[in-house]
Design brief:
The complex is a heterodimer of chains A (318) and B (341). The longest helix of chain A has 27 residues, at 214-240. Chain A is mostly helical and 318 residues long. A two-stranded antiparallel ribbon of chain A has the order 1-4. Chain A has a two-stranded antiparallel sheet with strand order 2-3. Chain A is built from 14 helices and four strands. Chain A starts with 5 loop residues before the first helix and ends with a helix. Chain B is built from eleven helices and twelve strands. By secondary structure, chain B is α/β, with parallel strands linked by helices. In chain B, helix 2 (62-78) packs parallel to helix 10 (291-304), helix 3 packs parallel to helix 4 and helix 5 packs parallel to helix 6. In chain B, the strands form two sheets. Chain B has a six-stranded parallel sheet with strand order 2-1-3-4-5-11, with helices on both faces. A six-stranded mixed sheet of chain B has the order 7-6-8-9-10-12, sandwiched between helices. Classes of the chains: A mainly alpha (318), B alpha/beta (341). Chains A and B meet through helix 3, helix 11 and helix 13 of A and strand 7, helix 7 and helix 8 of B.
Chain lengths: 318, 341
């Protein structure tokens, strides 16, 4: 620590990566190998693996936004309900075509995210409570706006192509997920906003002394998560060819679990988008594999829980 | 702070009075309109309109919403004074709701319990206090807790689906099952009825995969997607619920495998019936009809009036009414489409 030269610095940065982020790649490789052995005819096919990536995309895109929220030491429990509310907001104006649908869905999710952000910064409500309130508000809105009835979107052929079409053989939701992951990585690691996000989560008073406007950063991460939820809502509605007020149940917990096993600290101040990506993929692989093996739901629950414990415990070793 | 709060209360009171007025007006109108054909304003033994208390879980999805809507509509048509408490998905909450209903001294209570067992004591209390209880759908743990039970036939849904699929496939083929919420009696009975039902094929019909998707369309989509990956040869998809089946249908269409298999649902939603009328992919559903709450209100009225079902010889309402899991296919969908929810 005493001798601090630039190469040393780069090395120190590199040294942190394997410890934090190699646990999950190992788990993922192990799952891939296990799958290839147990279900050689089905599991290792490109079709199935693309299917895993597609299924991961809805929760995955949300989890990327959640990474920023958790990096500030916050939490967003409302994402699953907002996902439903955004789908319905789009569904209410679907007659005007796919682009208006997307505008309404994304716009509504961003609006609800902004309300979360305002409640937390301006209203000084702790994130857990503010977003818990939004969880029930958004679900209520989704049910009320839709009169508790799903809205069929079979007329929106472009939206369905967005949800279930392929570009160069890769499903569109998977492509969007990859793009959001890359954008999230750049935003966190290569921009001032990313640095400020980590700084606010690490030590708020130090961040203030350093001249960072914490409230602006915090407001922005909830808006960003809203944006991610809006994108997910668009993809999900396209895949389902309908907007349903009951979708997104417990998505918030899946997203938080993926972020946490990825290595982002719940207390804030430390975040990794790559880790979140691996976390999401891990859960999707487990769901896929256990489902292919026709394992009962209770076993899936146990495996998921054990994995969360093991991954987080292993990462605490450093 | 004090003034606005008072204002809110006043506005709320004004709104209440207004609703009460409109109700009276529409009741009166109904009387005039239907006139001689049937007495729209039901009269209990006391000579005033029959008062029915109604409690059901929160109407957060299609089927339960239809349950509440149908009860309300039926009460309007029959001229029954329905006290409807807004649903909650919390068992303890429903118990206190029923307590509140009892304190309003209804002639009859209609209860669709969140959990049959947990609502049994309060239903017993009502019965002992002389308020007959009509139990809808989920059964109380003792018959002493209800005057009449009206419900669908979950085991029958599985059985009817097995029959339908066995016939369509000539007892030969692969079936995947998409279940409701794991570990609840509805799911278990719908599953058991199906497994028992396909036994007559002596193993000709195989359930190659069986996974829960919690009655939710997005989970139905995911589960079906993975099943499509895992099984190259699927002949039929047996789902426990119409809403959830919509997700499965979309997964099959997205994978472009709609020619290989067909789907059956359960419940009788409007969307499902429309697809059945279109033909091909969605081939059948089995009624578990939310119209049962409308019938429950009718039964409640008859009980209050000490009448029986007019077509039966017996002068009182039967103690159990089980509705058949009618198979709805392209052939008969037109005749039941009006029941769709």
């Amino acid at each position: 620590m005493a001798v601090d030269s630039p190469p040393r610095n780069a090395l120190a940065g590199w040294r942190q990566v394997p410890v934090q982020e190699l646990v999950l790649p190992v788990v993922i490789v192990a799952l891939l190998v296990a799958g290839a052995i147990i279900k050689p005819d089905v599991f290792p096919t490109s079709d199935n693996l693309l299917n895993v990536l597609t299924q991961a995309s809805i929760t995955g895109i949300i989890a990327i936004g959640m990474t920023f929220v958790i990096a500030t030491g916050g939490i967003d429990l409302s994402v699953g309900s907002v996902l439903a509310a955004a789908s319905i907001a789009g569904g209410l104006v679907f007659e005007n075509g796919t682009w208006i649908f997307i505008l309404a869905a994304v716009g509504f999710a961003v609006l609800l995210g902004a309300i979360n952000g305002l409640a937390i910064t301006w209203g000084r409500v702790v994130p857990f409570i503010a977003t818990l309130a939004m969880l029930t508000i958004a679900r209520g809105l989704a049910l009320w706006m839709s009169d508790k009835t799903p809205i069929s979107l079979t007329e929106l052929s472009i939206l369905q192509r967005v949800g279930s079409g392929r570009v160069l053989g890769v499903p569109v939701p998977a492509l969007v997920f990859l793009a959001v992951t890359v954008a999230g990585w750049v935003l966190l690691n290569r921009t001032t906003f990313g640095r400020h996000t980590i700084a606010v989560g690490g030590n708020r008073s130090a961040a203030r002394i350093a001249g960072i406007r914490s409230n602006r950063v915090i407001f922005a991460v909830y808006v960003l998560t809203g944006l991610c939820v809006g994108i997910s809502a668009t993809l999900l509605s396209g895949r389902l060819a309908s907007a349903s007020p009951v979708v997104g149940n417990l998505v918030e917990l899946d997203a938080i679990a993926a972020v946490v096993i990825g290595g982002t600290a719940l207390a804030g101040g430390k975040a990794t988008v790559t880790g979140t990506f691996f976390g999401v993929i891990t859960f999707a692989l487990i769901f896929n594999l256990l489902n292919l093996l026709n394992m009962p739901a209770e076993i899936q629950g146990i495996v998921k829980g054990v994995l969360i414990l093991a991954a987080v415990a292993l990462q605490r070793r450093d | 702070m004090r003034l606005p709060r008072r204002l809110v209360v006043m506005v709320a009171l004004a709104a209440l009075t207004l609703t009460a007025c409109t109700n009276e007006v529409s009741d009166g109108g109904g009387e005039g309109a239907t006139g001689g054909t049937s007495a729209p304003q039901a009269e209990g033994v006391t000579g005033r309109p029959v008062k029915v208390g109604f409690s059901a879980p929160g109407a957060d999805h299609g089927w339960l919403k239809a349950i509440t809507d149908n009860a309300r509509k039926s009460a309007d048509e029959l001229g029954v004074d329905l006290i409807l408490s807004e649903g909650t998905n919390d068992t303890a909450g429903q118990v206190s709701q029923v307590e509140t209903l009892i304190s309003q001294k209804p002639d009859v209570l209609v209860i669709l319990p969140q959990e049959g067992g947990a609502l049994t004591p309060i239903a017993l209390k009502a019965m002992q206090a002389g308020i007959p209880v009509v139990n809808v759908d989920r059964e109380f743990s003792t018959p002493a807790a209800y005057r009449t039970l009206i419900g669908g036939d979950n085991y029958g849904i599985g059985e009817a689906a097995a029959n339908f699929i066995a016939n369509e496939l000539n007892c030969q083929g692969n079936v995947v099952e998409i279940q409701g919420v794991a570990g609840i009696s509805v799911t278990e009975q719908r599953s058991k009825g199906f497994t028992d039902g396909i036994k007559r094929c002596n193993g000709g019909i195989k359930i190659v995969a069986s996974q829960p998707a919690d009655f939710l369309p997005d989970k139905g989509l995911q589960v079906m997607e993975t099943m499509l990956q895992g099984h190259q040869d699927i002949d039929a998809v047996y789902t426990h619920d119409d809403d959830m089946a919509m997700g499965a249908v979309q997964a099959i269409r997205n994978a472009n495998r709609q020619d290989e298999m067909f789907v059956t649902g359960a419940g009788g939603s409007k969307d499902a019936m429309n697809l059945i009328a279109e033909g091909d992919l969605y081939r059948a559903t089995f009624l578990y009809n939310p119209s049962m709450s409308a019938s429950a209100v009718s039964l409640a009225k008859l009980i209050a009036e000490r009448k029986g079902l007019s077509e039966l010889v017996e002068p009182e309402v039967p103690s159990r009414v089980e509705l058949p899991a009618t198979t709805v296919t392209k052939d008969n969908v037109a005749s039941v489409q009006n029941l769709g929810y």
